[in-house]
Structure formats: structure tokens, C-alpha cells
Amino acid sequence: MTEAVVQSLLVDGLSAHALAPRIAEQIAASRPSLPGLSVALPFTLAAGAIDEMLGASPQACAAAREAWRAAALIGADALGLQAQGRHTVADLLAHWHSGDEVFGPRNDP
User: By Cβ atoms counted within 10 A, which residue in 17, 23, 35, 67 is the most buried?
Assistant: First the structure.
């Protein structure tokens, strides 16, 4: 999944807020009981890999920054849900589908 995040951010130009629910759906399809925080891991690993391998190019810096930001926001959502007794990837995805401001459905024209 780390490679998919790198590919999506750097090559495909997909935003992290659009990519995170897709990653969560992939994880939930096979292992819905994994902790919600596991969705942050591919973004964290991708950010580190981009920083390490691609250096300081503007595109790489922007992609790494976006991946770090997504990982932090996913972590915050997961922690907030955990405080409510909802700790799985399935719970995180349900939260996002209910209208989360960052990772929820968007009404794009």
C-alpha cells in the first residue's frame, strides 16, 4: 500500500484526502477489525520514502508534506474514535462516510 500512496501522490496527482478513504476501504475489505490507526501507516511510510529517495525537489517535498499531514489527521481521527470505543478501520471508514470534513464525501461539481 505504501507504493500505491507514493504512486497516487507523485504520479497520478491524487490528493491525500481522496486517497485515504480508498486505502481504508482496501484495508477494511480484507481486515475490517484492524485498528483505525493502521490506515495512517502507508502514508507515514510513503512520506519517509519520498523524503529519503527523492530529496528536495518541489514536487517531492509537496507530496511528502501531504502524506505526513494525512497521516497526522488519520491518527487524530483514529484517536478520537478510540476514545468513543470505536477503534477499527471499519469504524474509521464509517466516520468518514458520515461527513468528515477532511476525508468524507465531497460534493464536487
Answer: 67
